Design the sequence.
């Protein structure tokens, strides 16, 4: 240094050059470090963006199949050459062997080539031909013969895997023929179910008359079981003729579709005394008659197709008087022509209907939506089959040709409508938003409405913020503007430590300790803000009359110590008063009063408790960020305001608060984001009931808690699994949108309140 | 227009006159030159004229650190008084004592008395906001609020209770004219004050200060961040303003002090070294330190 200064003083140009080169060397090193740092930062940023995109991509990839349109691709058409026109058809779960119900009985054919397989004659035919069959369903069915008899039957497939291959062997079980019509008229329309008590068959023996055949098996502990068969004729008060019959799986109700478009219900709950229990017009198209009818899995939803192409679904719902009535649930997209065939899925509420022009429509009973149109080549199908795994459709035409389509329809129950809209579920009186993912039985109708969960998330967030924002912001304002710095030095870190409290601890405390405690003192709790505020105001008023000497002893910014006993006193008075108020005004029991006067029920784990607990999680965040931004308001602005004669409150509200508004806004938004994503507290402190109700005394179920609750029960790749991913996606989108909007607003505010 | 502010000021004045009659004679008006060690004509002048601010034996400590030491001086009505002295000598501190802005600082202890118009401003029963309404301040660094130009000027009157809109327009216009800014901003009153230039911002702060009609205007290096033209404007303005206001200005610029002030106080290391007519201080300083500082042979 000294050296170069000397050289400079001497005015030698070489010295200047050396000086430059020295600094030049340092500069290049600095630039190198700079560049390295910049690259590292860029790399980090890009990596973060990339990983977030990757997460979105993974989630979206899991969600995509839920909303993908189903597809069907034609595998081929083969000629099966049955002995007569097939009446109905069925297939095994691997779609290898189909069976056709024909005049001669049941015929098995290979689906691939149409070749006949091991003929198994229908025993007891005795020269008669099969002229009718009961509507297709899983398990047993019955065929009607030309001589007035009925034969129960069942097709079973046994599957074995010899030498790595697969062998499907069909088997036809045939029951004893029953003489249904002594008049020996051909039985073309019949329905058949096997209940635990025994089989029930209904057969039309005339245009307006049916015969009910029931067999009651009573199993004795010792000795042979007894069978008691009964047969009853029942004339029906209908217009037109009987077109189709359908029995529910419990054998309780018989539905009769007529050529005049009516559906008549016959109550069979007392088998010895069947009663006609009312009729409804099943189509609203003039001149249409019922052509096909059948139950979806679970036997609660009856699908009715008519001769003009209309398809609707119906349920027996309890009316006000406790009497059950057939109620229309959905009208499906109509066919162009008469509906000729119907087949339910045996794994979900899906079904297919086919019309005379060879168009088959895939529908879903829960949502009332038509998912897919499958076009044949113009032939008239006599029967359609939805494969047992709902992964294929087989249609058979009058000439016995089998057409096979492969279905790609893994999640028929999830459409935008079923995920977000109101859906009319089985057993519900009206369409509703329901989340109920699993049930006890196979035929359970999954209810995947995300609306109650989104609602729950918003509700929890709302109540948490309602509690947290005023406390946190007022606290921050006080701490930054009025509190003594030493005191603030204690208070602020303490509040920040609160943020480090694991939310599972908060949730645990809230659910197990706070909730029962709150339940005891609800009226007092609602009185507390009013009473405490009043007391504080009174105290402040009295303070003005305190002698100057006393007032001077209290250092500015530490008055808050004096308020602590007052707040405690306020709490104590509120709880005492709460008891009195409950006794005098709420007739001694606030819960009863809530129910009677406001129609609200009180759950122990409710939104209020969640509000408190989640408030605790959110307050530190909002407080800290808001306090920082308030404290960062330049002191010269504060001094400027005070110097104009403003009080400290005026300064705080008119200068500090607006100037800090961008920071306060971020604080609230970050708190909001935390509350939206909060899981453990809402999981533990609410009842997790997915109800849609704003009441503060009710629980709710949040998206995040729902994921935690249901994930263990969700098989990978299943609809529930993917719906949970969708819930995660929604959470992600919600926080993303929130943060983006927050950032935009914040930038705008900052431009407006940019200070020097 | 009898605003609440004015009424309050009247009240204060009433109090002052009572006190003045009670204490005035045995008060500090006597013997000021002797007390402070300030000599000559200035003392004469002051005895003839009414002192607006009387500071007696003022000591100020920031924690343990003594920032002002035994300061006594009188500041005269409708005059411009300049505080000069090297950086850190306590000029700003002394200025901020006059509107009790030091209250904001934690750990200050003040002893001694300051009377403004005869009222002890450290009296615990004094409404501090009333004091600050009477003693306006313009800061070293311009500090307009992040609001519109109009709202900046209207802020002071508004916090004292909202006068009707028309009256407010009038106040804003009068104040901006008083601060020689009206012509430049009359068409952009609703724009952000932060869109103004530095000099304009400083004049806006002056307008904001005079909008509440104070009696005293404290200016802490108001021109330190300004170019010569803006400085000239503000100096011109001070010459105007002193007809109505008593002005106390802190400056590092000797020429400025010489140009604008009637009296000059030289502070050094928290003590008042010399206080006299500006002419006297610059032409014939009585203390060696003052002379050294003024002539630039100093620190
Ligand atoms: N808030 C404070 N806390 C502690 N010490 C302070 C504070 N403000 C000022 N001081 C000290 O008091 C002394 C006087 O400061 P002051 O700001 O009055 O100086 P000044 O004369 O205005 O200087 P300048 O010309 O640089 O503005 C300085 O030594 C400073 O360090
Ligand atoms: Mg200063």
Sequence:
């Amino acid at each position: 240094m000294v050296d170069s200064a000397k050289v400079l003083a001497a005015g030698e140009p070489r010295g200047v050059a050396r000086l430059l080169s020295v600094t030049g060397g340092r500069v290049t090193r600095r630039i190198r470090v700079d560049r390295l740092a910049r690259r590292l930062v860029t790399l980090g940023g890009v990596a973060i963006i990339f990983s977030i995109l990757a997460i979105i991509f993974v989630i979206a990839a899991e969600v995509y199949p839920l909303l993908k349109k189903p597809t069907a691709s034609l595998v081929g058409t083969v000629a099966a050459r049955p002995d007569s026109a097939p009446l109905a058809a069925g297939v095994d779960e691997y779609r290898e062997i189909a069976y056709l119900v024909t005049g001669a009985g049941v015929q098995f054919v290979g689906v691939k080539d149409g070749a006949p397989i091991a003929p198994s004659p229908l025993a007891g035919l005795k020269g008669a031909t099969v002229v009718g069959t009961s509507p297709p369903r899983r398990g047993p069915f019955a065929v009607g013969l030309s001589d007035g008899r009925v034969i129960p039957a069942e097709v079973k497939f046994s599957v074995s895997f010899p030498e790595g291959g697969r062998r499907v062997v069909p088997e036809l079980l045939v029951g004893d023929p029953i003489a249904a019509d002594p008049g020996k008229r051909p039985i073309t329309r019949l329905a058949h179910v096997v209940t635990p008590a025994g089989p029930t068959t209904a057969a039309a023996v005339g245009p307006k008359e049916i015969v009910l055949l029931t067999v009651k098996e009573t199993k004795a502990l010792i000795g042979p079981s007894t069978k008691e068969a009964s047969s009853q004729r029942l004339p029906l008060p209908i217009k037109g003729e009987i077109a189709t019959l359908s029995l529910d799986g419990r054998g309780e109700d018989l539905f009769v579709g007529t050529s005049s478009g009516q559906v008549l219900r016959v109550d069979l709950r007392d088998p010895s005394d069947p009663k006609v229990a009312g009729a409804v017009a099943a189509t609203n198209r003039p001149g249409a008659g019922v052509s096909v009818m059948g139950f979806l899995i679970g036997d609660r939803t009856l699908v009715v197709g008519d001769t003009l192409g209309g398809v609707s679904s119906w349920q027996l719902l309890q009316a006000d008087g406790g009497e059950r009535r057939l109620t229309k649930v959905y009208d499906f997209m109509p066919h162009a022509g008469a509906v000729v065939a119907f087949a339910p899925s045996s794994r979900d509420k899906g079904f297919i209907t086919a019309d005379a022009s060879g168009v088959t429509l895939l529908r879903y009973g829960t949502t009332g939506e038509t998912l897919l149109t499958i076009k044949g080549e113009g032939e008239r199908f006599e029967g359609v089959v939805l494969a047992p795994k709902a992964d294929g459709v087989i249609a058979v035409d009058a000439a016995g040709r089998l057409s096979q389509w492969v279905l790609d329809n893994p999640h028929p129950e999830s459409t935008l409508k079923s995920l977000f809209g109101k859906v009319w579920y089985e057993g519900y009186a009206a369409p509703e938003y329901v989340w109920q993912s699993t049930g006890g039985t196979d035929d359970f109708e999954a209810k995947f409405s995300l609306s109650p969960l989104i609602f729950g998330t918003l509700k929890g967030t709302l109540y948490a913020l309602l509690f947290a924002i005023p406390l946190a912001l007022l606290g921050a304002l006080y701490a930054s503007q009025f509190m003594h710095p030493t005191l603030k030095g204690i208070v602020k870190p303490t509040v920040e430590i609160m943020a480090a409290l694991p939310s599972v601890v908060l949730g645990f405390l809230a659910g197990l300790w706070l909730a029962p405690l709150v339940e005891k003192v609800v009226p007092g709790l609602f009185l507390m803000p009013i009473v405490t505020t009043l007391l504080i105001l009174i105290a402040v008023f009295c303070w003005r009359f305190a002698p100057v000497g006393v007032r001077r002893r209290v250092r500015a910014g530490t008055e808050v110590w004096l308020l602590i006993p007052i707040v405690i006193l306020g709490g104590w008075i509120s709880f005492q008063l709460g008891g009195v108020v409950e006794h005098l005004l709420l007739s001694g029991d606030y819960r009863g009063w809530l129910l009677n006067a406001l129609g609200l029920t009180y759950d122990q784990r409710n939104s209020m408790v969640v509000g408190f607990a989640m408030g605790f999680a959110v307050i530190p965040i909002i407080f800290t960020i808001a306090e920082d931004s308030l404290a960062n308001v330049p002191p010269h602005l504060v001094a400027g305001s005070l110097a104009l004669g403003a009080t400290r409150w005026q300064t705080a509200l008119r200068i500090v608060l607006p100037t800090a508004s961008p920071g306060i806004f971020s604080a609230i938004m970050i708190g909001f984001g935390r509350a939206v994503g909060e899981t453990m507290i809402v999981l533990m402190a609410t009842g997790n009931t997915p109800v849609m109700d704003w009441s503060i005394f009710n629980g709710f179920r949040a998206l995040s808690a729902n994921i935690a609750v249901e994930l263990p029960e969700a098989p990978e790749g299943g609809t529930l699994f993917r719906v949970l991913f969708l819930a995660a996606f929604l959470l992600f989108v919600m926080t993303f949108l929130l943060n983006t909007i927050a950032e935009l607003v914040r930038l705008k505010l900052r431009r407006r309140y940019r200070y020097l | 227009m009898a605003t609440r502010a004015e009424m309050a000021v009247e009240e204060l004045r009433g109090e002052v006159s009572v006190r003045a009659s009670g204490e005035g004679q045995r008060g500090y008006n006597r013997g000021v030159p002797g007390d402070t060690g300030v000599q000559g004509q200035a003392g004469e002048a002051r005895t003839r004229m009414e002192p607006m601010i009387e500071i007696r034996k003022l000591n100020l400590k920031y924690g343990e650190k003594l920032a002002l030491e035994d300061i006594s001086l009188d500041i005269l009505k409708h005059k411009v008084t300049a505080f000069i002295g090297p950086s850190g000598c306590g000029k700003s501190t002394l200025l901020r004592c006059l509107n009790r802005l030091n209250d904001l600082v934690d750990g200050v202890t003040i002893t001694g008395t300051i009377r403004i118009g005869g009222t002890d401003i450290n009296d615990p029963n004094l409404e501090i906001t009333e004091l600050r309404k009477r003693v306006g301040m313009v800061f070293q660094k311009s500090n307009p609020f992040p609001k519109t130009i109009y709202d900046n000027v209207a802020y002071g009157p508004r916090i004292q209770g909202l006068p009707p809109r028309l009256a407010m327009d009038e106040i804003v216009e009068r104040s901006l004219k008083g601060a020689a800014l009206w012509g430049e901003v009359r068409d952009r009153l609703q724009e952000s004050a932060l869109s103004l230039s530095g000099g304009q911002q400083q004049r806006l702060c002056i307008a904001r200060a005079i909008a509440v009609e104070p009696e005293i205007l404290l200016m802490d290096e108001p021109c330190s961040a300004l170019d010569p033209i803006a400085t000239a404007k503000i100096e011109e303005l001070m010459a105007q303003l002193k007809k109505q206001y008593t002005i106390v200005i802190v400056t590092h610029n000797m020429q400025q002090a010489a140009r604008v002030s009637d009296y000059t106080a030289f502070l050094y290391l928290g003590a008042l070294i010399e206080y006299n007519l500006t002419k006297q201080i610059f032409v014939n300083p009585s203390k060696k330190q003052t002379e050294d500082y003024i002539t630039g042979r100093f620190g």
The first helix of chain A runs from residue 2 to 10. Chain A has two domains: 71-220+239-420, 451-694. Confidence is low (pLDDT under 50) at residues 1-13 of chain A.
